[in-house]
Design goal:
single chain; mainly alpha
Length: 299
């Protein structure tokens, strides 16, 4: 692999990981177009690790709050006191309860994703491109369905809220964490997103919104829940590290990771604004023709 090829693949991974267009699917297509047929899966996973750094930096405040809440849970310590600037005692308790519910949701989603990931792992490497392009169409359908569901939900809220249509929040104004059933559904959606062509971010955000999670929480949760999944995949693939050094090289790998970080941060910044505006279905306008043309010309 050349330096330029590594940069191109890194840019594709960074943008595709956060935009709901499937990074794995686009990487498969890009590798085919670049004539790279022997790139190990560990290369893709390492690029994912680079975008993981983007997630940690972008959501650092929420991740730090979750880590602190997890530490208090393990130590059996109570919620932070009012002196820590979290408002009244009731607000502090509600916030702590929501953070612990968020942690439980991440654990449940990760378990489901892990099981599905083990099942689908053997199909990923040998999957023909026609299945990848079919995955693009499935992702597009999910995004369109999510847009329809959001419009119907907003109409219902408008009528029930007397015309305000203000999105709901948790108790005392805090965002509610996904419930147990929602977490299981989101985990299954993320597991499906391990298949090339089906966007992990698109599937998890769509799954979140379709099962009743608010838009802002859905976008944030979709990426925070990816952290244990990506770390787990990286650890599993580390057994192929020698193959990575031989077939890719350290310089193209480093360049690809840097490119993935830059394009990933810009893509995540852009996507979170689209999620809050409920505009994810726009990406279907790209995925549908791409999927159809790919099935016809790039079998």
């Amino acid at each position: 692999m050349t330096l330029l090829q590594g940069i191109i693949l890194g840019l594709v991974q960074g943008a595709g990981e956060f935009l709901p267009i499937s990074s794995s699917g686009h990487l498969a297509v890009a590798q085919r177009l670049l004539g790279l047929d022997d790139v190990p899966l560990l290369f893709d996973v390492t690029l994912h690790l680079s975008t993981l750094v983007v997630v940690v930096l972008f959501f650092r405040k929420k991740i730090w709050a979750l880590l602190r809440a997890f530490g208090r849970l393990c130590a059996r310590r109570p919620a932070p006191s009012v002196a820590e600037g979290l408002g009244g005692e009731q607000d502090a308790l509600v916030r702590e309860r929501n953070l612990r519910a968020y942690i439980l949701a991440i654990v449940l989603s990760t378990l489901v994703t892990g099981v599905l990931g083990i099942v689908t792992e053997k199909f990923i490497g040998d999957m023909p491109l026609v299945f990848v392009f079919t995955g693009f169409l499935i992702t597009a359908a999910l995004l369109v369905l999510t847009g329809i569901a959001e419009r119907l939900r907003l109409r219902g809220k408008t009528s029930s809220c007397g015309g305000n249509g203000v999105p709901g929040e948790g108790e005392s104004g805090f965002e509610k964490a996904p419930g147990v059933v929602q977490a299981l559904i989101i985990g299954a959606a993320q597991g499906a997103g391990t298949l090339p062509g089906i966007s992990r971010s698109g599937a998890t955000i769509a799954g979140s919104i379709l099962c009743g999670v608010e838009r802002r929480t859905a976008g944030e949760y979709s990426f925070i829940v990816s952290i244990p999944a990506i770390l787990g995949a990286f650890i599993l693939e580390m057994r192929h590290v020698e193959q990575l050094k031989v077939s890719v090289g350290l310089i193209p790998l480093a360049a690809g990771c840097a490119a993935a970080f830059v394009s990933g941060y810009l893509a995540l910044w852009f996507l979170m604004r689209l999620v809050r505006k409920g505009k994810l279905q726009w990406f279907a306008c790209y995925l549908i023709p791409l999927g159809i043309l790919g099935i016809i010309f790039l079998r």
